[in-house]
Structure formats: C-alpha cells, structure tokens
C-alpha cells in the first residue's frame, strides 16, 4: 500500500517552530513581522491561524518554517503536550521593558527542556527594542509598539545601566548583558528585537536555520526520540500533518513501520478492489 | 479585556466529544471557555505518559467510573514521557464521521495517523490473519473455493448500496437474529468463518449482537477500506483519542476559546435576576485557585464531569441522547480493560501460515507487526471465562506512543457480572503473548495494569429508533423559565474498538446543534424581555451588548465553517 504522494522534489526542509513567552510580549508581532513584514500596533491577542508558514532561504537550502503560536493557551498554563511535539526550534520572547517577562521566559525554557525534543534549538528574544531606542528609529514615530499595552510598559526610571545611551533607555528593565549571560549559560541563541521596526527579527530565523545547518540535518533526522530512533523528517512530516506535495514524501524506507503513516487530507478515494466475482 | 470573564458557552471536560463541541462553538463565533479539572487534556479519553498513568491509576480509584484498578508496579519505566497510554484505546474507521470532522475542521493537520496493519483472530488454538480485502481472500490458501464464493457473496451483500431492510436476506425476524446464526443460515458460512466475520470484521461484542446492527457497522467499516490504504482503520499517533482531543482544543483556542485546566469548579450560581435584565448571564462560575469569576448563558458538560452537586435545581438540564450508534447498537455498560507493555515484537501470523507463505521461504522468523488487533471470539479460549469477545489492540513505535522497541497491548472485554478484571483478562494476555511471540519463548510483560470502566447507563436509555433530538426525553420547555441552560453530552461508547471516536464526532455535532438552538432561545427570550422593558422607562443598555446579540443570532449553516488554507500565505 505505497501511499506516498509523489511530492515535489525541492530541497526545502521543514522546521516546526514554537513560540513561547508571557502574554503581550509581542510573540505574534514577531511572527507577523517575519512572515508578512507587517506590524499592527493594536494587535489582538493570538494570531487566529493554525500556524503560519514562511520560507527562508539560507545559502543553498530553503527552510520552510512552520510557526506555531500559543493561541492564548499559555495564559492559564494550559498548553497541550501536542504543542511541543516534534518542534525543532523555539523562540522564547520577553519584553525588555518588563523584568518579570524574562523570569517567565526562563520558566518557559525550563518547560521546553522538560517537554520538548532534547535537540530543540531555542532562541531567546528580548522584544520591544524600539521602546528604549532614541527617536531616530526608521519608522519616524518613536511611539511604542505597545501603546495599547501601556500598563505592561510601566516605566521604572533609573534602572538598567545603559549600554547604548539615549534617554528612552530608562524604560529598559532587562539589561542586555543580563539576558545575554543567561542565554549563554542556558545554551540559547540570543537577540534583542523590535517587531515594530523589524530590527533583529529576520536574524532570529536565519540564525536558527544556520544552527540547524551546522548539524547538517542531524537535528532533523533525530526527532523527539533522540538517541535510538532515527526517522527521516520527511516521514515524520508526511505522517504528522498533511498537504500534497510535501517535500520528500516519497522517500520511503523499505520495511519500515512508517510505511503505514497516513495523510488524512490526501483525500483521493482509491478505487476499491476491482474484482467482482 | 473588559469582558474577559463573559462567555456565551462554558464547556466542562476536555474529552473528545466536548473538545469537538468546543471547537465547533469557537469556529462558529461564540465566546467559549473550556474547563477541565485535570491538568491534562482528554478527560476519560486522555493519553497519558507512563508516570501520569500511574498517577491516574492511583487517583481514579475514587471515581465512580473506574474501579478494581491494579498495577503490576508503580515504579516508572525509563523514558516515561515517550509513552502515550490511552485511557480510551480505539481505532478510527477511515471513512467515518470522526475523520470527516478532522478534515473539515482542519484538525487533521495537527495529528499523525497510521493504518492498523493487521487484524487477527484466535481460531482453533492458533492466531489466524483475518483477510482484510477481497484480494486477501483470494490469496488465502486456507479457505476452500466454495467458502471463498460464499464469503464473496456475503461481502458483496454487506458492502452494497441497498438498504439492508429492503433485502430479502433480512426478511422475517432475521434482523434481530444473532449475527453468527444469521451468517450461518443465510450465507451458509461455517462456524469459524461466521465468528471471524462477527468479531474480527464487524467487531461485535457479544454472541447476542443482532444481525442488522452488525451489518450496518460492517458496512461502515467495509466502506472505510481503501480510503487511505487497504485497512479500514486508522489509529492516531500519541495515543489517538487524547491527542485528537488536544488538536480540537488547539483549533478552538486559535478561534478564540479560552482554556483553563487544572482548576476545579467550586461553585455554579444560577443568576436570580436572569428574568429581570436581559444582559444578565445565566450562570456565574467560580473556580478554585482562580481569582476571576466567569459567566455564561449556557453550560455544556460531559456527563461524567458535571458537578451536579453544586446545583440545587436540575430542572434546566437537558441530557442529550447519544446520536450514535444510530440504531440498535447494544452497548455494554461495564468493560474490563488491561494495559500491558512489552519489549519484544508480536507476530499475528501463525507459525503454520508463515512457513507455508511464499515470502516466508528462507526466513526463519515470523513477520512482526507494529499495529494490530487480535480478537478472541466469545468462549474461544478454554482457559478464559469471558462471555464476550476479548480484543487486544497492539500499538508500537509507529504510533509514536511508545519508545523504540516497546509495544502497548490494550485488552478489553465487556462484562455483565462483577469480576476481577485481572483474573478475567490474564489468560487472554498470556495466550496472546505466547502465541504471537515472534520467537519461540513467551514474552514477559514489563508492566501490566487492569481496571473496570463503567459508563453511566443513563446515557443509553434512549429508544433504539434513530434518535431524533427533537423527540428527546426533554420535558416540554415552555417559553421562558424552563429553557435548557445546561446540556450534558453523552459519554462515548466504550466498545467496540472502532466506534468511540465516531460516536464522539456524531454526538458532538448533536450537542452543538442543540446548544445553538438553546442559545437562540435564551437570547430571544432576553430580547423579548428587553423590548418589554423598553416600553417601560428605558434602562441603560450598553451598545456593545446589543451588538453582541445581533452577532449571535446569525444563522449557523454548517457544523464546520470552510477551512481557510493557511498554507498559501507564503510568497
């Protein structure tokens, strides 16, 4: 019953990426900036899509990010185990103008280390960098991306010895050095970003991709069951979720149990046995 | 966030039925909160890690549904988190209502599925492969030519398009005849073949299962074969039902449903001034360790999770009768279950078969399987006492619910009398492990657990006619005070193996439509009151509420709105 759809043969690699972080730190905005290069100042909570996809070209290969948003399920600690399954990368977002959001980010990192694939690539992103930058930001209006979240951005003057100067730096509650030190210690990629101006956003995704590249597909091959289990990603993805023309869906491994994996959306009703005796 | 705690519907319990219902509500535009007292999704159909299972077993002892729970050991196996042990092991017919709902709602993208590789039956002290297709029957050398003809005649009859009622084969009282007898008398099939069809193809539970309902079920299964492969059945990865429930919950969340897990409901208040002001919600709920109260117009709850004790007056409760199985399904109330973890592969090919098969030439070992169903017809095992069929569902690493090199066996049989589930099922487990061991020695389990599960009979006391919701047991709700404001969704049947998921999907849809009806009546009655009030001195009515109301009275046309293909938004 070789069910394998003869998919397109482009060399793109799929990466499931999950977003985590406290509510209103700008998770969805980060993705929106990356996926459609947009910014909505009054972004509603959650993104309203199952997941967003975005291709990212990296030297000779194409990474196809499948980005999962929490859909608000993190609010009351109700994220399902399904959310973490087979995630190859995670972006944990905090708000540099809100110290508690870094603490929350740390607990998400712990949760990822507990729940997710041990090989997961985690990036820590300190968002809302525009809020602490001088008014010369390219967008012209230096008003915060979180006008609507003013209560989140309560200014605590005098904190955070500034590294770059500028009067807005006073809004900063998380010094870059502190977050960087934590990221290094925990083995995370680290960025400071602004979904509003776009600063640092694409870098997150290209660097994650580059990280995966260094491992030369090993990251993708060893999924979820890291040590003993080797299943090519094409199988997992074909098995995990559907869509015609999935890359590599045809690459079968003879005699493997994965042969029976099914893609529900592959709706073709195969003709039943033709015999009529 | 002004109206954060105000919902149209609060759904209690994250079992598959409730999760599907919640997703449908959220997608239809209602404001929904979905609660579960457990910290995990899935309720009584959850998929649990090994440690969570042990924990569940220790705590479920207090519940009315689960009893006689035994554990061979409460020490965790290594890689506990790589197990997804299902509390409601099941398979899914490939062309059934659950698969339709999965595809129509887009939830299928979240879950992986695989085909059940093989079905086998215990017959004449051997494991015998059940032919899954006409091809298989032709190839099967153990069936005589005459029997093949008879079998074909039956399969053509069973899988045809005509209503069974219209067929001469079912004339007389044959529809109510036990299925095995029907097969023997009407289609001249021998006992062995009749039993195989009854228990391994039609998945009948007991010898008294009636012909018509068995035929209807068989037809559904036969039509499922060939959709995704030659097996009619799929099994979801990571524990099937529990994982699928999570998928529906995520879809609900994406559509705006709010999730609060791990909180017990500490009070439900029916708001007294409900009748006085149109804007007052029907119920206010408080949760333990949760600062905010939440309100709603309608509560939808799984029957087993509803905290009825918190509510004095139960006159507003409407118990939705199961819409599935449609007719004549005999559903057992108590089922004995066993869970067994092994670290050696099984083979559902008899030693005889494997040595005689062509592919077996030159190979010593028997072909092993990842996923399969092994059925013991009633009274087939001399050392076993089960009066109903015993089924063994095997899942391996292909279902992503075990670590590599491990398999879970789920045993189940329905029972009429109180027995120890372990005593009852142990002989069947032992026979399975010795017969289908791929080596010559019997397999020693790493872990076993047994329990009884009782489904409240009240769910099934409906008439056996095609249950029409309009003629349900509901008292005549005259306009106004006695609108149903709490709907209880039926628990899915605990057997046969392929039916619980489809039942959840069908029942969820029934609950959904009933809820939409109820919400409309509630809104309409409030609106009427409002217009009445408007004639008296005008009370202050905030605009946003008016708008909301308009929005909700919009006609809902389908259970699942069309899925937007989010995959096309790339450049």
Automatic annotation (TrEMBL), chain A:
<keyword id="KW-0547">Nucleotide-binding</keyword>
<feature type="compositionally biased region" description="Low complexity">
    <location>
        <begin position="134"/>
        <end position="144"/>
    </location>
</feature>
<dbReference type="InterPro" id="IPR005225">
    <property type="entry name" value="Small_GTP-bd"/>
</dbReference>
<feature type="region of interest" description="Disordered">
    <location>
        <begin position="133"/>
        <end position="177"/>
    </location>
</feature>
<dbReference type="InterPro" id="IPR027417">
    <property type="entry name" value="P-loop_NTPase"/>
</dbReference>
<protein>
    <submittedName>
        <fullName>GTP-binding protein ypt5</fullName>
    </submittedName>
</protein>
<dbReference type="Pfam" id="PF00071">
    <property type="entry name" value="Ras"/>
</dbReference>
<feature type="compositionally biased region" description="Low complexity">
    <location>
        <begin position="153"/>
        <end position="168"/>
    </location>
</feature>
<dbReference type="InterPro" id="IPR001806">
    <property type="entry name" value="Small_GTPase"/>
</dbReference>
From TrEMBL, chain B:
<comment type="similarity">
    <text>Belongs to the Rab GDI family.</text>
</comment>
<protein>
    <submittedName>
        <fullName>FAD/NAD-P-binding domain-containing protein</fullName>
    </submittedName>
</protein>
<feature type="compositionally biased region" description="Acidic residues">
    <location>
        <begin position="543"/>
        <end position="555"/>
    </location>
</feature>
<feature type="region of interest" description="Disordered">
    <location>
        <begin position="456"/>
        <end position="501"/>
    </location>
</feature>
<dbReference type="InterPro" id="IPR036188">
    <property type="entry name" value="FAD/NAD-bd_sf"/>
</dbReference>
<feature type="region of interest" description="Disordered">
    <location>
        <begin position="533"/>
        <end position="571"/>
    </location>
</feature>
<dbReference type="InterPro" id="IPR018203">
    <property type="entry name" value="GDP_dissociation_inhibitor"/>
</dbReference>
<feature type="compositionally biased region" description="Low complexity">
    <location>
        <begin position="456"/>
        <end position="473"/>
    </location>
</feature>
<dbReference type="Pfam" id="PF00996">
    <property type="entry name" value="GDI"/>
</dbReference>
